[in-house]
Amino acid sequence: MSTTFDSLKFPAYRLWFAGALVANVGTWMQRIAQDWVVLTDLSDNSGIAVGIVTALQFLPALLLGPYGGLLADRLPRRGLLMVTQGAMGALALGLGALVLSGSAQLWHVWAFAFVLGVVAAVDNPVRQTFVAELVPQSSLPNAVGLNSASFNAARLVGPAVAGLTIAAVGPGWVFVVNAASFAFTVGALMLMRTRDLHPLPHAERSKGQVREGMRYVGARSDILLIMAVVGVVSALGLNFQLTSAMMAVTVFDQGAANYGLLGSVLAIGSLAGALMAARRSQPRVRYILGAALGFGLASALMAIAPTYWTYALAAIPVGFCSLTMLASANAYVQTSTAPEMRGRVMSLYLMVLMGTTPIGSPVVGWVGEAFGARWSIGIGAIATIVIAVLGIAWARRAWHVELRYVRTPSPHVLVLSDADRMGRAV
Q1: pTM for the whole thing?
Q2: What CA–CA distance (Å, rounded) separates 218 from 76?
Q3: I need a labelling partner for 94 at 20 to 30 A (CA). Which of 104, 264, 371, 402 fits?
Q4: Rounded mean pLDDT of 240-263?
Q5: Which of the two residues, 135 and 275, has the higher pLDDT score?
């Protein structure tokens, strides 16, 4: 079996991968339907209204993320995931019933988005760290990369299916389909055999454990640098739901089907980036910084695309660079962190990744309404290029990075830092 798919040889991971793939398709379908309902049915093409939905969905990650990580370190992760995945399915069913009955109002969607965010604040760090129990430590970078590939394979299918479903029968049924999809992840968790798992150590209950996680991260300049870059990109650059909806409707005058297609085209690049990350046995900080810079440049081209189809084509390198950055960052943080601290560290990383969205998405929505949809992408492109360049400059100075030209066995440039010289790749 190719090294790209090496983790699929482990039975527990195969079950998780299959169940998560189905659930991810449903999740992407709901994201498209939710934004479409808010933009076209419950508001007058308001980018701010869509930005508020996105903000409310991710705000709990900013407020509750560290406590979700603490639960991931303390409690049995498999059982906790059954609870959170089941709760997400119930919320999707409830919102779907409101939309199908014709009684949904804007505040209903906002309320459901916030409650879903509360559940996700617990689910996300547990789900991320649970992957380490499905494969041996040596296969963890590959498993993390394949998780990203699964998410983006679903992104390739989900938005297009959602657009066609909305056009055919309306958005309400999309929520119902998503509710049903969570049965696959819960079923996969129930079918796993204990002997196929690789349990991580759990943290004993004591005082100050959240602060302990913060001190651990504060002492790691590499993780802090990753968080700074990912935080800026997430706040202002990773608002594809909002920016694509505004571009499709207000700039290119497209309907639901072509709006959903944009998400699928973006996922072509995202899937390629995730699969490339899965092939790397050792994630490095330099890949993250390089991918962030590439994302900023590709987003700038996307912002000035003259037609719908050139915009769609520009989404491919944007997706590739964003997932190369995110998959590499996730794998690096997990593999370089002590197992008993991993839940808390991942929760802080996810708090930055997802918790900055409530800050950035209303700003991006306002920029789109005030200055045009293209600037809602342009602001993210500019911010990303700036933070990537600053990150590269800081790393070169702080870690004494040097470039060496090597002629054999093939000509290439070798990047060396203090960490590389000590045997720890960055």
Answers
A1: 0.71
A2: 27
A3: 264
A4: 79
A5: 135
CA distances from 196 to 136, 156, 167, 199, 289 (A): 10, 30, 44, 10, 36
The pLDDT tens digits of the residues spanning 295-339 come to 999 999 999 999 989 998 998 999 899 888 888 888 888 888 887
Task: Classify burial at 40, counting beta carbons within 10 Å of its beta carbon; exposed 0-12, middle 13-18, buried 19 or more.
Answer: middle
What average pLDDT does this structure show over 154-163? 77
Query: Is the Cβ–Cβ distance between 126 and 71 less than 8 Å?
Result: yes
Question: Which amino acid type is present at position 361?
Answer: S
The residues, ordered by sequence, that sit 6+ positions from 405 with a Cβ below 8 Å of its Cβ are: 411, 412, 413, 414
Distance CA 186, CA 13 (A): 14
CA 311 – CA 265 distance, rounded (Å): 10
416, 404 Cβ separation under 8 angstroms = yes
Query: Would the pLDDT of 191 be above 80?
Result: yes
Q: What is the pLDDT of residue 147?
A: 81
Which residue shows structure tokens 């002590």?
A: 338
* Cα–Cα distance for residue pair 337/341, rounded to 1 Å: 7
Q: Which H or E run includes 228?
A: helix 221-236
Can you tell me whether residue 287 is helix, strand or coil?
Answer: helix
Please enumerate in sequence order all residues whose Cβ is within 8 A of that of 149, keeping only pairs 6 or more positions apart, or say none: 271, 274, 275, 278
